Amino acid sequence: LAVLAPKAARGGGATSSNSTGSSKAVHVAEPQEEPKAAQCPPPWAASGQAWSYPYEPIRVLLAGHWKAKQLWAKLDARCGRPEYTSSACAEGRLRGKRIVVVGAGPSGLRAAIELRLLGAQVTVLERRKSFTRLNRLHLWHWCGEELKALGARCLEPPPLDFGADPDLLHIGIAELQTLLLKTSLLLGVQVLLGASYCGAKWIPGAASSPRGNWAVRIQHATSGTAVGTEAAEALLGDVAIVVGAGGLSCGVGRGIGMESVEVGSLRAEEAIGLVCNFRASGHSDRSLRSFALARQFYGKLFTRVEAETGAELENVVYTRSKASHYFVMTPTRHCLERCGVLKDPLCKPALASHNLDRSALDAFVRRIVAFPFKEGEPTLPTAVEKDKGELHYADGGPQLFDFSRMRRMAEGLAFVAPPAKNKEIIEDEAAVGDATDAPAQGEYPLLVVLAGDALVEPFWPEGLGVVRGFFGALDASWAALRWASGAPQTVVSAEFAAAYGQLKSLGAQSRSRVIRDDEAGYSLAPSSRYRVVCHPPDAM
User: Which of 48, 124, 155, 179 has its CA 20 to 30 A from that of 488?
Assistant: First the structure.
């Protein structure tokens, strides 16, 4: 991958990518000059190149490896699907253009994979330089099968026994990101780690190139850059689409005026989540089994939990991995006050760091994990003691968060019009909408679409994060395909809105009403996944 992954050839100074996708920034042109947009030729465009994806020549090098053969078979099967054979996102409005995905989380990388399969030249920007999140995600069955089709059980992580847990299908966030990163690179996606998205701008045409184009501004602070100092800036040019998948803090939508709405119906700070990761050690703890329990189904058990530990819980989930023992639960605010975790019950916000008694929180957590939720099976502290070890946190310790106020975007797709030819260069994302569908000289508007937590915040007790994120990535890719194929803005917007209407209503209780039963038939088209999708009359 170090040799065959796509590299950036930056004119005028910008960034370059290495085997892990990290970027090294150098200064752009002098301040009095307009910095030139960086050029990033797709890996399949090299002269004399007889392959479409980097994994094809890599296959020649690893032809005899049995595990590699399984991986190549999976990738061949995915790349050979009918919707990908025409490479539609390399033509039409996207000919010679780039799609920038902001965020290398599960949703962003899944969108990058889909767009690359459609033939697009894809660059992923991720402000972090490594994947370190230990928290684990509950997966719906289709998500697990999708990950296996994209390389899980051939590539590590996750471990080769992914999906073997009989009690709960789960994966670590960092494991999921690493898997999708490897698949992305094998398919020819460019990934820049340590690169922050700073907005889009319009670059006007010049005498040598009369057509203007969109560019994305990125910043990367080098290892020697002091905190608070301005990082070097570079431009990625010839951008046609920006996919915002940077999580709850993603600024792609806000930068162009896309608004979020609050959809929570619970009283503020009455829905509280508690997450903790304990270090995996010894051998006895490997026998522990995952579980997911809710008060509504195990009322007597949760009454015992409260009597013996003081913790009034609504849900508790435990998963074991090679990296950690992961617990997530929902204590009530009242029990946190009663157990001394909240110093001042009247403090606003109640979960502010200065209002938490960390020692009381630690004791509260340890009482809970020592409770025998599974009758006849050892608890985590018992297993650790059996190996003569001590129970240590695998990270900074337990974390409390408020999920009583959930947010989602009012709309997840917008078009940004290029400025009039007689105006100055547009800065950031101004002049939203009102662009014609067939502008002079092919100067098209910038399509901005959101996916994952940047689009709709998941309700974590139902394991909605990954399934909504993957569905949103497919919906965003469908919008890109329709735009590349010549569909008008009104049609692209209406189709995405129809799919989004179904996506945001998807939940554990509503899944049978929202999505189709035939998971094997799920594909790029929203109608293959959602039961009811109302398309405009001229939709495909």
Answer: 124
Mean pLDDT of the chain: 84
- CB distance 93 to 444 below 8 Å: yes
Overall residue count recorded for the chain in this entry = 540
pLDDT at 43 over 60: no
State the alpha helices, DSSP H only, in 40-188. Answer: 55-61, 66-79, 106-117, 141-149, 173-187
For residue 209, the model assigns a pLDDT of 67
> What kind and span of H or E run contains 408?
strand 407-409
The answer to whether 277 touches 365, Cβ cutoff 8 Å, is no
Closest CA to 452 of 54, 109, 87: 109
Per DSSP, the chain holds a count of helices (H) and strands (E) of 12, 19
The Cα-based distances of 432 to 224, 257, 258, 413, 445 in angstroms read 38, 8, 10, 11, 9
Indicate the pairing of strand 399-402 with strand 407-409: unpaired
3-state DSSP assignment of residue 311: coil
Q: What is the pLDDT, as a whole number, of residue 67?
A: 86
- How far, in Å, CA of 246 to CA of 285, rounded? 35
User: Does residue 158 have a cis bond before it (omega within 30 degrees)?
Assistant: yes
Beta bridge partners of residue 315, listed in sequence order:
294
Cα 58 to Cα 72: distance, rounded to the nearest angstrom: 10
Find where tokens 């030139």 sit: 36
Task: Give Cα separations from 26 to 87, 221, 230 (angstroms).
Answer: 33, 10, 12
The beta-strand segments (E) located in 270-398 are 272-279, 291-294, 313-320, 324-331
Backbone region of residue 188 per phi and psi (left: phi > 0; alpha: psi in -120 to 50; beta: other values): left
State both tokens at 535. Answer: 């398309």
Whether omega before 159 lies within 30 degrees of 0, making that bond cis, reads: no
Joined tokens for residue 41: 């030729």
Identify the H or E element spanning 219.
strand 213-220
pTM: 0.83
- Determine whether 125 is exposed, middle or buried from the number of CB atoms within 10 Å of its CB (0-12, 13-18, 19+): buried
- Other C-beta atoms closer than 10 Å to the C-beta of 512 total 9
d(CA 112, CA 97): 15
Backbone angles phi and psi of 367, in degrees to 5 = -65, -40
Q: Give the integer Cα–Cα distance in Å for 468 and 308.
A: 37
Residue with tokens 């760091």: 353
The DSSP-derived string for 162-207 is TT--SS--EEEHHHHHHHHHHHHHHHT-EEEET-EEEEEEEE---S
Q: Where are the alpha helices (DSSP H) in 212-295?
A: none
Report in angstroms the alpha-carbon separations of 410 from 80, 171, 186.
36, 30, 35
Q: Which tokens go with 533?
A: 């999708």
- Written as one letter, the residue type at 484 is A
Amino acid sitting at position 387? D
The whole-angstrom separation of Cα 104 and Cα 146 is 18
The three-class DSSP label of residue 323 is: coil
